[in-house]
Design brief:
By secondary structure, the chain is α+β, with helices and mostly antiparallel strands. It has 15 helices and 13 strands. It is elongated.
Length: about 450
């Protein structure tokens, strides 16, 4: 082996070591995201600013880096093959290829990339000067850009879509993983998910329906309205005219107390009414929250598409969509979902379909209804009576208690899916066998 071949082997070794360096840089750069780079920059870490800038357009750095990686690996393999062929012939080349694959896989790929995955911040910051240099090196940029143009000609397409490089689903998944690894609490994970769902929720899903509204007649006295407000524990009450479908304004507890102390207890409550805000039931809750902040109001009357009163919604209702139920000493605590047996639950008729889906562990369609009562009404196509049994998919709903035309309590049983069953059906049983779930 002459001096030239020795020099070539030394050069190949240098290229191989450089390829290991590039593998570390590639994996750490791909592993990191702009959000993490911003956090590192806020911590004052050296090189974090340049790293954040490169991650704003990661394809620019990554394309150049991949070109460098390709050159180093092909260069190393080619040089070794030339030297081996001169010394040992074709058989030597075949043996060297197998050896190169083993060495490249273990030392050139697995080892450095595994280390980069385990220490992404540390490696990425250490590689930032190198990544910045090749990103700003004009000849490399020109070559990689030219090759990309050629690839677009051969395989025409719309090109690389710019962002978002961290999507809503990515953030939800990050929250799930962080909760599993005890990085954040379970309640924090739930709140993160609720924030994203909040932007997609409409007012109709969060409001108090008209049947549950506490309102006072315009013909009532201030004393009667004050007694009602104290009894129910509300600081604001809607005022209705001829019937509850016609809301003419609001009355505040502080106004009732003030006028009662002034000796005006027998005056009509309509004389101190305040203007009510009316909103459509399809309005987004996130938009309403901004309106409440800007307009400085805490209650709105929800109207349906025909102009009738659908319900009301308060600032507390909106906050509960994010943080969960908020109860004070005046709230009447409604029963929550109660597990009463294996694959069997008791729940209020107003339970949202999303909560039921989470409880039973299967996705339930919610495009035509928002609550369990809505599902039962739509399947029955009539007002159900106590003791009626409804089967929808693999869930059996037993209407346990009805108040007027309102479903108060429902028993839900998850059944094994039978391929011979229809998608939904109605069964009636005046005396169902629910011995394990009788009322106390």
């Amino acid at each position: 082996m002459d001096s030239i071949e020795i020099s070539l082997l030394i050069f190949a070794l240098v290229l191989f070591l450089f390829s290991i360096f590039c593998a570390l840089a590639e994996t750490s750069f791909v592993k990191l995201n702009r959000v993490r780079a911003l956090a590192l920059e806020d911590e004052g870490r050296k090189g974090a600013r340049r790293l954040r800038i490169m991650l704003e357009r990661p394809e620019t750095t990554l394309n150049t880096l991949l070109l460098v990686v390709l050159v180093t690996q092909l260069g190393t393999a080619s040089i070794i093959s030339i030297v081996v062929e001169n010394q040992y012939g074709t058989l030597g080349v075949a043996i060297s290829i197998v050896a190169q694959i083993t060495v490249f896989f273990v030392l050139g790929e697995v080892a450095p990339k595994t280390f980069a995955v385990q220490h992404p911040d540390k490696v990425a910051l250490a590689m930032t000067p190198f990544l910045w240099a090749i990103t700003k090196f004009a000849p490399l940029k020109w070559i990689s850009s030219g090759l990309i143009v050629v690839s677009n000609i051969i395989l025409p397409g719309k090109g690389i879509k710019e962002g978002p490089f961290v999507t809503e689903d990515d953030l939800k998944t990050m929250a799930n993983v962080a909760a599993q690894e005890s990085g954040i609490e379970h309640e924090e994970r739930e709140m993160i998910h609720s924030i994203f769902e909040f932007t997609d929720t409409v007012v109709r899903e969060a409001m108090t329906p008209r049947t549950d509204m506490v309102a006072v007649a315009a013909s009532s006295t201030i004393k009667a309205a004050l007694d009602l407000a104290i009894q129910e524990g509300f600081s604001r009450l809607p005022i209705y005219g001829e019937n509850r479908d016609i809301i003419i304004g609001l009355v505040y507890m502080k106004d009732l107390v003030e006028h009662e102390r002034q000796g005006k207890a027998e005056n009509l409550v309509s004389t101190i009414r305040r203007t009510a805000v009316f909103i459509p039931e399809q309005k987004r809750t996130a938009e309403l929250l901004r309106d409440m902040q800007q307009g400085q109001f805490h209650m709105a009357i929800v109207v349906d598409e025909y102009g009738g009163t659908a319900g009301l919604i308060t600032l507390e209702d909106l906050i509960e969509e994010i943080v969960g139920e908020i109860s004070d000493e005046y709230d009447a605590v409604e029963p929550a979902i109660e597990e009463i047996g294996e694959n069997q639950w008791r729940l209020p008729g107003r339970t949202p379909i999303d909560d039921l889906s989470e409880t039973v562990g299967s996705e339930i369609e919610d495009t035509e209804w928002d609550t369990v009562s809505g599902l039962i009404f739509n399947v029955c196509q009539h007002v159900p009576y106590e003791g009626e049994r409804v089967v929808y998919n693999n869930l059996e709903f037993f209407v346990e208690r009805v108040q007027g035309q309102r479903i108060v309590s429902v028993l839900v049983t998850k059944k094994e899916i039978d391929q011979n069953d229809n998608e939904d059906e109605i069964k009636r049983d005046a005396s169902p066998d629910y011995s394990s779930s009788e009322q106390d």
